[in-house]
Write the structure tokens for this entry.
Amino acid sequence: MNDHLRRYIELQAPATCCLLSHPKQRLAQPTVLELTEEARPMTTKNINLTVNGNAHSVDVEPRLLLVHLLRDILGLTGTHLGCDTSSCGACTILVNGKSLKSCTMFAVQADGEEITTVEGLASDGKYHAVQQGFWEEHGLQCGYCTPGMMISAIQLLERNSDPDDQQIRTAIRGNLCRCTGYHNIVNAIKFAAKVKQETGA
Ligand code: FES
Ligand code: FES
């Protein structure tokens, strides 16, 4: 219990007791207790974060999920919401370079962090190697899983520059695709690995 809440209860308790035992006094002297600014329930918190290289300062409710901050407040709808329960991987982003399902994190937990979404992958007008791979190998059909799938692929290639098919399938096991059967996705990631090796990117 914080000091402000304790103080509020200390103020409240004798007043309530007094009102119960002396109903006339309640009518004559209504007790009005004002919560101090600090004791009021917090409805929003200001956070500062960097998304795709851009600094943002935002007031958010403590219960807001990071995926909703990205999509609904910052307008970065490339990060998809599939299940909201940490199962599908459509909402996968990079937080300080590590892949993470953004429906599993509150926005307030991203205070001070550096985030990359699918919108931040291309640079200087050129696709990221993983985007090239998905383009060249047609690694998608409806595209709903694709942003999250590409982020997981980036994380894999950071750790393993030349993964085999099984290693790729293991790395993307947290990302579900209802369309492709995964075959072209695996080829897309192998294509990206080759591009990265050739270009040193
Ligand atoms: Fe986050 Fe499905 S929306 S894992
Ligand atoms: Fe449709 Fe993967 S391309 S869910």
